[in-house]
Specification:
By secondary structure, the protein is α+β, with helices and mostly antiparallel strands. 16% of the residues lie in helices and 35% in strands. The protein is built from 11 helices and 44 strands. The strands form 10 sheets. Strands 37-38-40-39-41-42-43-44 form an 8-stranded mixed β-sheet. Strands 1, 2, 3, 4 and 5 form a 5-stranded mixed β-sheet that branches. Strands 14, 15, 16, 19 and 20 form a 5-stranded antiparallel β-sheet that branches.
Length: 718
């Protein structure tokens, strides 16, 4: 069966993301749910909606608000870090009670009351980035030109609380590493009393400046990018309490970890990273992480004096993985903290109570009263929503497990937003995507998912393979009969840190895998060592070597799958991937030409010295101290080994994995006399969103693989 329409649908729907509700905010009383969604599965313009009394109502429709200006550069960068590809309303923020919402549209600030009012434009001093109402809903804080400003919801009193002292300084924005590698997109946080904010000041003057140009637009000047590559200087981030009355207090944090910082071949105890900041009823709570990522301090800050007192300390011999949403303080003041079972899972500790030792906690979703909500897994291919009530009256610490409740049911990847006794359960299942509103634990309604149904239906066979029990998914052509003939094999992994592909859910990558299968391939996806969901030892097996164990797991899974499915042709094996998956694909044909016959590698980081500090030093250390680890994992250093067909694809506007990776690797291959194919994508960033480019990219990959893996290969017209 041929499905030529899938590439077009895949591109038109932005990977089936359009029409999917997201960004849920639930009011503390549980009565209102705000979210962003477009009106159809091919509509790229997001709108702001509220779900209330069992019905949806649109609050902000950009098409009805008239002309807006261009997206400010700081907002464009924020969207790139968040992998945002839609338009219109892409984010919003509310007051504490979710009665006032603020959005930025083309640099303009719009405010709307959720009780049925119409959106109002608020005049500001400049193009607006990340507007956020105060908890009492009377003032909006926003960033423009690197300054942190406030304006009343009635449009009066616009003034700066902090202005940059130079071109390389900003207030209220996250730096590149915080947004790209630590998951912190924000740079300011309101006090509960609405009278002050804690604000990040970022100075990038020490960070190496790189230049990114568009060769297809030679009339445009290059764009400066402050990119902290491994081993080079980071941005300097400091925190300041800014009062609406004009007072300013610098937060005094320790410069180095002084207590029990782990030794090692490379150690750096300087606090250079600020992973999390929050301000709740008990005051500001801040975490700091050392440059080598082996110590983390949790600090309670006095907003009047700026003094910081350590409330918790974590350390690890390899690195400390950051848990989204943690630490968190509950209403009682108890801190919800991350704890590790030695060699096993990650759990939560609330006071003296801990989650079960075999439950792998993924993310802290929030707290209501003294109950914490989080996602976690017993089986790594499923993620469920749980609630947990601590229990401090049990004298035996090993028996303090509290009251644990599983909220979501059935196979899938589930997450949630909570407020009062309302839970918005966001579920990706094998059948598709649903959003269910629960109240008091019972379903009371649905929020519509308007995404298009894929023209190809995934048919994964979930497998556990080899001695390491590798979780894998095998996709075979729907028309293939066992024993009818050999199928070429296509590995399509990501297999890197921070992302799982082998899950019991229908996702865009499972649809693409099935499409390749319908073209005549057996497609295998495997999550090996280094991927999340299986505990510290599993993730840290790549410490010092990000390529060898990962590649070994792909080969082991391939051979184990072929033993169970004899129709897999081990003489015709290809591999494709993007980002880390592209790095793995190129590494596969360099180091295992005995297994892999061709590779299509997109946006591959080929020289890991050129990737950012926080992401690469975590796994490989400092390149000046441990150069052999970077050399071992470099593709450029091993370019002379290439024996198999390789296609390199790269967006020339990619400011995450910069085009220099592809160009240096191609140059090294050329110098070694190794033929290869290069496909540059002018104007494309790390996430290719241009419809024609994304459509034809899948087809060109297929043509390349057909040429080298299928005798007398068929091709699709581009």
């Amino acid at each position: 069966m041929d499905s030529p329409d899938l590439p077009r649908q895949f591109a038109r729907t932005r990977r089936f993301s359009l029409g999917v509700p997201r960004g849920f905010t639930v009011s503390p009383d549980g009565e209102r749910v705000l979210f962003v969604r477009s009106t159809a599965g091919d509509d790229p313009v997001g709108r702001l909606w509220v779900y209330e009394d069992g019905a949806e109502r649109m609050l902000v429709d950009p098409s009805a608000l008239g002309e807006t200006g261009p997206v400010p550069e700081a907002e464009r960068i924020r969207r790139e870090r968040a992998r945002e590809t839609s338009q219109g309303v892409v984010a919003f923020a509310t007051d504490h009670h979710a009665r006032v919402a603020a959005v930025a549209l083309g640099g303009a600030l719009w405010v709307v009351e959720t009780d049925g009012g119409t959106p109002r434009r608020i005049r500001t001093a400049g193009p607006v980035v990340d507007p956020r109402p105060s908890p009492d809903g009377t003032v909006i804080a926003y960033v423009t030109g690197g300054a942190l400003r406030v304006v009343g919801v009635d449009g009066t009193g616009d003034r700066a609380l902090a202005e940059p002292e130079g071109e390389e300084v900003t207030y209220g924005l996250a730096d590149h590493v915080a947004a790209e590698s630590m998951g912190r997109q924000r740079g300011f946080w309101w006090s509960p009393e609405s009278d002050a904010l804690i604000v990040a000041r970022v100075d990038t003057s020490r960070v190496r400046r790189w230049w990114l140009s568009d060769p297809a637009r030679p009339e445009l000047p290059p764009r400066a990018v402050r990119y902290p590559a491994a081993g080079t200087a980071n941005a300097e981030t400091s925190l300041h309490v800014l009062g609406l009355d004009g007072r300013r207090v610098a937060v005094r944090t320790p410069e180095r970890a002084s207590e029990y910082h782990p030794d090692g071949e490379w150690t750096d105890s300087a606090f250079e990273y600020v992973p999390t900041v929050c301000w709740d009823a008990h005051g500001p709570l801040v975490t700091l992480q050392t440059r080598d990522q082996r110590s983390l301090y949790v600090l309670e800050v006095d907003p009047e004096t700026g003094d910081a007192v350590m409330a918790g300390h974590r350390r690890d011999h390899a690195w400390l993985e950051l848990m989204p949403g943690a630490p968190l303080r509950l209403a009682s003041g108890r801190v919800v903290a991350h704890w590790n079972v030695r060699g096993g899972t990650r759990g939560l500790r609330v006071g003296n109570t801990r989650t079960p030792r075999d439950l792998q906690v993924r993310e802290v979703l929030g707290g209501v009263g003294d109950r914490v909500w989080f996602t976690a897994s017993y089986e790594p291919t499923e993620v469920h929503v749980w609630s947990f009530d601590h229990q401090d009256d049990e004298p035996d610490p090993e028996r303090r497990t509290g009251t644990l409740r599983q909220i979501s049911q059935g196979p899938g990847v589930h997450t949630a937003a909570v407020g009062g006794d309302t839970v918005v359960l966001d579920s990706m299942t094998p059948e598709g995507h649903t959003v269910t509103v629960l109240r008091g634990g019972e379903p009371v309604g649905r929020i519509a998912v308007l995404a298009e149904e894929p023209v190809v239906t995934p048919r994964p066979r979930h497998l556990t393979l080899g001695k390491r029990e590798l979780r894998s998914a095998l996709f075979l052509p729907s028309w293939h009969e066992p024993g009818a003939g050999k199928l070429p094999v296509l590995l399509s992994p990501y297999a890197g840190p921070g992302l799982q592909l082998v899950v019991h859910a229908r996702a865009w990558w499972t649809v693409v895998a099935q499409w390749f299968a319908e073209q005549g391939y057996a497609v295998l996806i495997t999550d090996g060592r280094g991927t999340p969901g299986r505990g510290d030892d599993w993730e840290k097996a790549i410490h010092g070597d990000q390529l060898t164990p990962v590649l070994d797991d792909q080969v082991d899974a391939l051979h184990a799958a072929a033993e169970r499915f004899p129709d897999l042709d081990l003489e015709r094996v290809g591999i494709r991937g993007w980002s880390f998956g592209g790095y793995l694909a190129a590494g596969a044909v360099l180091h295992r030409p005995d297994v892999f016959r061709a590779a299509a590698a997109g946006a591959a980081p080929t020289d890991l010295r050129l990737y950012d500090t926080h992401w690469k030093e975590r796994y490989l250390g400092h390149p000046d101290v441990l150069p052999e680890q970077y050399e071992r994992c470099s593709l450029v250093a091993h370019a002379h080994r290439l024996e198999r067909p390789l296609m390199l694809v790269h967006g020339l506007a990619d400011d995450n994995v910069l085009p220099v990776h592809m160009l240096r690797f191609s140059s090294a291959l050329l110098a070694a006399g190794r033929p290869h194919t290069v496909l540059p994508l002018p104007g494309a960033s790390h996430l290719v969103s241009q419809e024609e480019v994304a459509t034809n990219l899948l087809r060109l990959e297929l043509n390349f693989l057909n040429e080298h893996l299928i005798a007398h290969g068929k091709s699709l017209s581009v």
